[in-house]
Design goal:
Elements lengths: L7 E4 L8 E7 L3 H6 L2 E2 L17 E9 L2 E11 L10 E7 L2 H13 L3 E2 L4 H8 L5 H12 L3 H11 L2 H25 L10 H20 L1 H9 L1 E7 L5 H9 L17 E7 L2 E7 L9 H15 L3 E7 L4 H15 L4 E6 L7 H6 L8 H20 L11 H22 L4 H19 L5 H8 L7
Parallel strand pairs: 1-7, 8-10, 8-11, 11-12
Antiparallel strand pairs: 1-2, 2-6, 3-4, 4-5, 5-6, 9-10
Helix pairs in contact: 4-5, 6-15, 7-14, 14-15
């Protein structure tokens, strides 16, 4: 990674054709770097003294490379500490397009800046105290949000809902730890500053709150990453046809020949604000075809990791084939996260199936709507269990930190039950504080920082 003394730069807008591109520059020498290339005159280079200009203002100018004008630009000026990174920042808005944008970036680097690493602007914001680590992670979540729920969750975390809670719990535990360790200084006098029963009660209360937050992770994962849905069934049960119908596109090859789908296909679909990651799989059967067999093996792998399984049965098939499919479903698939669906209702003459089961036809919009309702109902049940004003965990790292905190606090309770000395209680309390501190970054190391910021895009 670059040194904090380096002035960093990167393109902050997507690469490609567009109206404008934004090149961000941040660091202690930002103004000097930009002043070397920015002119207020088109006829000849006339330097603009950025240090004399008010912060949070936008100015028009020309970028020069020697005697050549590269582009007409707008520059936005943000002076330390009131910027995104907490450093002096200039954002150069140039004309869009790959060539022009790269030309401007190269010009900035040529005059003293270095290319930013992924997430380095946000990392500097964290290191300069502009946000804590969980808020920095919320920035990445906000960028990648695909639904209203994901957006709202990211905004809530960015505003500090989790950070405030963690800070409150840490302050509570710090005060208790201080009393326990004070007792150690007066061990010979046999004084008790922290009453053990009260300490146990506080630990149990905190554990209860943390476990409620931890339990929200399943819903949080759905909000952040979407629901992994696998469409499964025997060959020719209508999997690829349903896949295409839900996506309203001819994404999968549809054929009357069994075994057409040799590998799984994946696409995203949003229904009622919920992101579904659809997977069309190879038909489940025994086959001598090596390629199809590998596809079926992969299908089982996708089914195993699915959040929701839609198992299709061809309602136009013979009674014996339908019976075998249902037996297979009951034996291998059926669970709380599965939906049994009968397909091809438009060509089926089996009236008993149509009466009592979820039946669809890709040619009937109303029947497809019923399936969509059932898909959202399955997911909404778990989402509705989470209170709207509660903290929802969407980050696996945070979940692990809270689980470790609970484990340490359970050790505190056990140590008190076993009449262990204050040294053991103090160690467990400090471990709990460390795990909580890892969430916000008040306790951190280079490995954690690299893990968090390496997942960011360059320019953020």
């Amino acid at each position: 990674m670059n040194n904090l003394s380096d002035t960093i730069t990167a393109i902050s807008t997507p690469i490609g054709e567009g109206g404008i591109s934004v090149i961000r520059v941040s660091g202690e020498n930002t103004f000097q770097v930009v002043e070397k290339i920015l002119s207020k005159s088109k006829e000849s280079f006339k330097k603009i003294n950025i240090g004399d200009i008010s912060s949070h203002t936008i100015h028009f100018g020309y970028l020069y490379d020697g005697d050549d004008i590269i582009d007409e630009v707008l520059i936005s000026i943000f002076k330390s500490p009131n910027s995104y990174t907490g450093e002096d920042v200039v954002e150069i808005s140039s004309h869009g397009g790959v060539f022009v944008t790269q030309k401007v970036l190269g010009l900035v680097i040529k005059n003293g800046a270095v290319h930013a690493e992924p997430g380095e602007f946000t990392k500097r914001a964290f290191l300069n105290g502009r946000m804590d680590l969980s808020q920095a992670e919320a920035v990445a979540d906000l960028i990648h949000a695909k639904t209203n729920e994901a957006h709202a969750s990211s905004i809530k975390q960015l505003e500090g809902s989790l950070s405030e809670y963690v800070k409150k719990v840490r302050e509570d535990l710090i005060s208790v730890t201080a009393l326990v360790e004070l007792e150690l200084d007066f061990a010979e006098e046999d004084l008790e500053f922290a009453h053990k029963k009260d300490l146990q009660k506080r630990a149990k209360s905190i554990i209860s709150d943390l476990e409620e937050i931890i339990s929200s992770y399943i819903s949080g994962k759905v909000i952040r990453e979407g629901v992994n849905v696998v469409i499964a069934g025997k060959p020719n049960s209508g999997k690829s046809s349903l896949f295409n119908a839900l996506l309203k596109t001819e994404r999968a090859i549809v054929s009357e020949i069994s075994g057409t789908t040799r590998d799984y296909l994946e696409e995203n679909l949003i229904i009622n604000g919920i992101l579904f990651n659809l997977t069309d799989t190879a038909g489940l059967r025994t086959t001598e075809d090596i390629i199809e067999s590998e596809g079926i093996k992969r299908s089982y792998g996708r089914i195993k990791g699915a959040d929701l399984i839609i198992f299709l049965v061809d309602s136009s098939a013979s009674s014996e084939e339908i019976k075998l499919s249902i037996e297979y479903y009951d034996r291998n698939i059926k669970s709380d996260n599965s939906i049994l669906v009968y397909t091809k209702a438009d060509i089926s003459s089996n009236e008993d199936i149509k009466k009592d089961n979820l039946v669809i036809s890709i040619n009937d919009i109303n029947l497809l709507s019923e399936l969509k309702k059932e898909m959202t109902r399955k997911v909404s049940t778990s989402l509705s269990a989470v209170k709207s004003d509660s903290i929802i965990l969407t980050n696996l790292r945070h979940k692990i930190c809270l689980e470790n905190t609970v484990a340490s606090l359970n050790n505190v309770i056990k140590s008190i039950d076993d009449n262990m000395s204050g040294e053991f209680i103090s160690i467990d309390l400090r471990n709990a504080l460390t795990h909580l501190g890892e969430i916000t970054g008040s306790v951190t190391n280079d490995e954690i920082l690299h893990y968090v910021f390496s997942k960011f895009c360059i320019g953020k």
